[in-house]
Amino acid sequence: MSKVGQIFFRANSRHGLWTIPLLVAICCCAGLAAATADFVSRQNVLNLFAQAAPLILVSIGQMIVILVKGLDLSVGSVVSLTTGILSLNAPVYVTVPAAMLMAAVVGLLNGVAVTRFRVHPIIATLSIMGITQGAAMFVRPSAGGTVASEIVALVSGQLFGIYMPVIWTIVAILFGWKIVHASRFGLHLFAIGGGETAGTFGIAERRNVLAAYVLSSCFAAAAGIFLAGRIASGDPNIGTQYAVDSITAVALGGTQLAGGIGSLHGTLIGCGLLSLIANGMNLLNVSAFIQTVVKGAILLLVIALQPRKNIGL
Q: Could you list the residue ranges forming a coiled coil in this record (predicted)?
């Protein structure tokens, strides 16, 4: 096989098969640009960044967990609870640390359930999701409240002429790259997901898996902060979509749900493709119900195309 062919079709590398989604995303851009003039408008591009930024944040955390053969279904409820905490009309120096502490506790509970009590990740995080969603409903029973002006400015303003959603995206990418591809912890994630034992490489598997779940929840909380600033209020149901959407984006980017194979750039491509599809359907006035069906079908198709013997779910 030629070098070009290996780059585009070599699915067994540690980074997964991310080039095919990239080509599909490019084709989607070309098709949408031809179908509607609004797609290339400045306002739509900004909206696309604003829609993609929270998904990118949640998906980076989700990918970290999936790399160690896990899954985090509680990310959506963490997003919702974060917006509720930030809408309690308290100073920003109280609400933001409280939200991040809450996220760390949720991630810790997920990690302990998976590592210490050996509960399957789906069952563990589904249970914690229910608890966290209940807390979100308690804190903010319905959409409303007031988010501090500092949070709103962090999302809706500009810095040196660059719109804040773009800056959030760049910062998320830099943090994600450092964690996954430029640290010893990232190497441990791939090793654990690949099945290498602690005895072979001296890796503290339980501690690293625990850290992965804590990071996943913290990234979800960051997405919640972004969304709270964007809507300037709290909403106990705003995070509902992010559990499935983040898994779909990560799988679209070539990350294997069996663990050990994946990449940040693949996840970003998956987020971009999913956001493009959603944005395109909005521009074409596709029903919200059909959009949900399409997203579910994409997730089913992507997982079905992954090697069945490696799924283990």
A: none
CA 40 to chain centre: 25
Q: Answer yes or no: is 19 within a domain.
A: no
- Domain annotation covers residue 4: no
Name the amino acid, one letter, at 253: G
Is residue 195 a part of any domain in this protein? Answer: yes
Give me the CATH number covering residue 300: 1.10.3470
What is the per-residue pLDDT across 203-237, written as a single tens digit (0 to 9) for each?
Answer: 789 999 999 999 999 999 999 999 999 999 999 99
Strands (DSSP E) contained in the chain are 158-159, 162-163
Q: Is residue 28 part of a domain?
A: no
Nearest to 64 by CA among 246, 244, 195: 246
* Number of helices (H), then strands (E), in the chain: 15, 2
Handedness of CA 39, 40, 43, 47 (dihedral sign): positive
The widest CA-to-CA distance across the chain, in whole angstroms, is: 61
Write down the pTM of the prediction.
Answer: 0.92
Give the domain extent around 141. 51-307
Residue 256's nearest CA partner among 74, 14, 19, 6 is 14
Domains contained in the chain, number: 1
Residue 159: beta bridge partners? 162
